[in-house]
């Protein structure tokens, strides 16, 4: 109601900025922990993706990237020697927003986890 | 009855009107509610009081007055509705009315259950308290909403007015829209509040005026209608009544009222046909409505019958309706609790929908407009706790009730007089039905929360929109390049194959090799090579061999030891020789001493003898043609054994054997030298007698190197002893065809290396000789044709085991060879001239002057000794002749220089004459013609220890010993050795003072070699002997 007096944080605090390296580390840690030795099973994979995404989200949330909206995308596919290409495009403020992704490969599956962090001004 | 009928009629009418009224009130109540906060507080309080009062009134008066008021109000509302329809707005506001109808129907169906109703009656009072509290909260909230609403309303109303007119009839028919619709209606009411508020001032006033008018008119009509309907229904009604108890009268009356009201409505509508606004549609609708009313009536009558039998009070009904409202509200707002109910309602609704299609068409646009704003408040509604929801509902109910009461109050205040006049019998059913209508209508207020939610969300949306616009001014958004999240190339066929099959017992290994590292092939098979050698004659260890393996093996096995062993061998060789010599000396001396005594008688000149052990298997049957002592090492002797004709065990028959003896080691020869043919003459190398030279009848000069190791020579094991037969180290046989001898070599002589004129006969020191000799000296060889060849003896630094390709005469491994240096034809013109007369001139013997290497003396077959020099001027006497005649055909068989006076030499001839010559005179100092009794002189030699003594050996095996000191005309003694003929003789002796010995070596025909020592008289020199020789020289010249 007092919109006129709104103030915006146009830039995040440097320490609270979305750091892809850290997030990537989280992703790697979680995915490795959860997927190492896991065989691809079409029955379980949907739940697995969801839970993976959830745990990655929680982990990144706790990392203290304030005022960041997170999008976690998890893809698990079976590895049968096929070629896969996956790419993303974003319309965002490149100064504040960033993304981190990590790929985990297994004998039977591959898993791509991408976390997009978008700053909330 | 009439009154009753009238009441019924009126009831029916009121009922019908109530419906309308309710429809109308859908807008009005909201209007009023929204107005609440604006209105004064006392008014609200009044309202509450009024409500309480109302309920009390109802309870008290059994609804008579109250109901009448209600009816009035209904009528008034009805008028109001019509008025609005005239205004064109009515259409909108009748929609809730229709809804109410349905609601009411539902209520009635559901609330037959008595017990439930009673229970709810009990709950009534606490509920009311709660309701009050909620109401307060609700009001506050509503106030806020109103403020918002006011703002929004301004722009939205314009929109909605336009949208309202869009016909979309389907929405309404769909049962699932029910809930929404309720919400729509709420919204619409909210919106209407604004409109209403604006209108209220004037409208209310007008309405009131109009209502008064209309009321009056209508009531006239109603009375008429009542009468008519009564006639129709009276019979059935009365029957009903008669059955029913007195208590039920009210209910039945309510029923009747209802039916009557319906009919009233019907009639009224017929009347209303006259109204200008009524379109053709409405007429159809009315007809349908007629049917509907009848149906309703049927239903209601059925329901009422059952319910009436249970003696329901109106009060209870009223409470029921309240409860019902809660339920209905839950249905509409939550939509979750009462789905069955909703279904029932739907069923009912469908029926109604047919009837109200036309109306609905009118309302559709309104609902649609409401639909537009409605987004997500449903969810929020659902999230609210059930208690909160319930409380809200209750609050809403209360509010509605309060409004109702207020309105009723106001209506009453306005129309009470009129109503009381006309409606003297207000039916309890009227109140109940009106309450039902109210409650059902209030169900739409439930959705107000959703509306609020939507409001909030819209507010948020606007805020966000504003926010975004503000932010976007500050922020640049850019489209990022495409991030490649995953790029997994397809697995190639090979990798797939390896993945699936490559793991079993196989491993992948990679090697990178040089591109230029190519293979090279050779098609031909590799040649096998090995080295062999062959040698003829096969002297040692076979005729052929494999040098490399044996060499290597030898090197390997003995390589380390060779150095030591070679030194050891050289040491042992020298040491063993010394030891052997010592031992044999000892033995021989004892033997000779013994023999001296025994053989004293046999040989007068000898006082002892030594037998050399020549009885060796390979020497058997050989004659000794020559015995020769080394001039330097006087104990070294060689004996030349001629080839034998008799076969022996040893295959050396055709070979001449030369044995090298050490006279102190008589048991066996030191070396055994072998040559393929006869050996004519021999000599030792000067100094240490390490080389032996020999001339052969075939014109070759050969040499043996005694230093060669015995292992490289042919070895033969005979009996227990092993003998080494040395073949010549070097031979001029084949090599020197151009420069060699073509006649039998008669003599080989080492050219003395002493300088000319040096005379040291008493000092033949070994040391000096050895020193000077070395191994580079000249050798002279003379053949019968008078050709004198000079050879240089060359020692090679190392021998070649495989044989030298250039020096073909050199034995493999040999180190010493002869190089032809020059040749000299010694026989000159005189000899040719004279020899031609008699017989071919022959040179038989070569002697060098012992102290002058330039002068040589050659004995010829003419009894002459020619004197020559190898280089430089010729020496004065060319020939040494006989005393009386120049020459005689007699071979010079021996020439020997005196070891004490080198310028004196003796010449022995084959005719038995002996001459003593001095070098400087061609005529002899002395000549003894018949000393040997005409026998040819074979050998003639001076004694080594006494200058005046010499020995002559003649062909008749007589040995003549001359001592010129005693007798210079004839030999002092002559020994005839006829038993075992002597074939060769050599004088030996050492003139050194400390160990003076002298003797003669006699080679017997049997092959024995006997060393005879001269007696003391012949050995020990006397001082007068030199003088004797001097006197002879002086006497002669």
TrEMBL record, chain B:
Residues 1-444 are annotated as: Disordered. GO terms for cellular component: cilium; cytoplasmic dynein complex. InterPro entries: DYNC2I1, WD40/YVTN_repeat-like_dom_sf, WD40_repeat_dom_sf, WD40_rpt. SMART domains: WD40. Residues 1-23, 30-217, 225-302, 337-347, 392-409, 417-444 have a biased composition (Basic and acidic residues). One of its GO terms (molecular function) is dynein heavy chain binding. It comes from the Eukaryota. Residues 348-381 have a biased composition (Acidic residues). GO terms for biological process: intraciliary transport. This is Dynein 2 intermediate chain 1.
